[in-house]
Amino acid sequence: MKILYAASEAAPFAKSGGLADVAGALPKALVRDGIDARVVMPLYGDLKFKDTLTYVTNFSVPVGWRSQYCGLFKAERDGVVFYFIDNEYYFKRSGLYGFYDDGERFAFFSRAILEMLFYTDFEPDIINCNDWQTALTPVYLNLYYRHLDKFSRIKTVFTIHNIAYQGKYGLDILEDTCGIGARDAHVVEYDGCANFMKGAIECADKVTTVSPTYAQEILDPWFSHGLDGLLRQKQYKLCGILNGIDVDVFNPATDPDIAKNYDAETFQEGKAVCKEALQDEFGLHKDGSPVMAMVTRLVGHKGVDLVQAIAEGLLQQGIELVILGSGEAQYENFFNELCARNPGRVGVYIGFNAKLAQQIYAGADIFLMPSRSEPCGLAQMVSCRYGTIPVIRETGGLKDSIRDSGDGYGNGFTFANYNAHELYEACWRAKEGYWQKDGWPVLVKRAMECDFSWSNSAKSYEGLYNEVVNLW
Ligand code: GLC
After folding, report:
1. Domains defined along the chain, listed by start
2. Interval between CA 356 and ligand 1 midpoint (Å)
């Protein structure tokens, strides 16, 4: 089986979010199972490991009525072949997205993914596209390439990592920029806009999301950002597969960034050293208090408003808080101010710092993730692996990976409704649990032993790919 995994970012080459982790790890797990999975992504200006790339060829790609240069580069990493689409005008910028011409940049990318197949000897059975940046690939394939022998049997899978980002533009982008004429416009048109994600949902053979619960949730207008009507119509081809994490990368036994390495047998000693180092880093008192942490973008849908509402209450309970992230100014200001008013009790780092994030996963006792919605979420799995007990809201992948420990089997603390009182109650139970000096290590060990490796998810993808290949 041959899979071309198309994504706008993939670790370790370029990363702005969870998509990069998935695109870095899933193909690796597939290759381990004997599947020829290759990745294609843009060659960004600030791509990492650029010196490992080799030039393959160049060709031109239609963008509306124009033709644009496209270079093709290649690299191999952990047994996975990565292809890089090069066009300096589109991609040699600092940062990945957020430019005025993102629609055009990724229309180009989506088309280049198909064009490159004329110039390589790789003939995929399936192209697995991810999110709106590659959503036009199944559309172009069905509209303009199907009649060619080379493309007639290729199937497509479209994976939604977050339905909030659909690639929505005015209808005028279609003909001039995307090269989709009036006759075909209906394929990508939705609610009076050009909607790239809608086009993929229409054209792909299967649509997946990153957890079973999220696959259900997006049928509901509260979660769907307007796409629930279409998704209900296409429900027959929709399913959810929970992501894994790269357990080689996220491994407290080998992590070079933490103060002391540990595993599920030695965590009591190891985590104590890591906790002390974390408290030193943020100048926190070392009086035995539990440390509760968040590593997140500071935006509304991550539940930061709930944490804001209960922060004072948590401090009064004798909890120390550590926050790492950046985002909306209102939250950044709130946490900075909370930190200034509570020296020794609150530590705040505004920005992203991968090394410090690892130190928090290792050194904290409890990890907060009260998201309003969370397609999958990776941090709750990472925190389990590092023995830091998650407190989560029961939504999306959080619900599918974390079970309340109230029944004596779970790996965290959970609450159902998006409500600060419920979050507070869950935090309170976590804190009470922390003080039970016999019970807590049992819970930590159980959390650390949860299997969140990619091997299970990869098996589900393999099942899906087998089904898709035999569809027609
Ligand atoms: C997106 C989602 C996140 C998910 C990640 C990887 O970033 O918001 O929940 O874990 O994609 O699929």
Report:
1. 2-244+455-469 (3.40.50.2000), 267-451 (3.40.50.2000)
2. 21
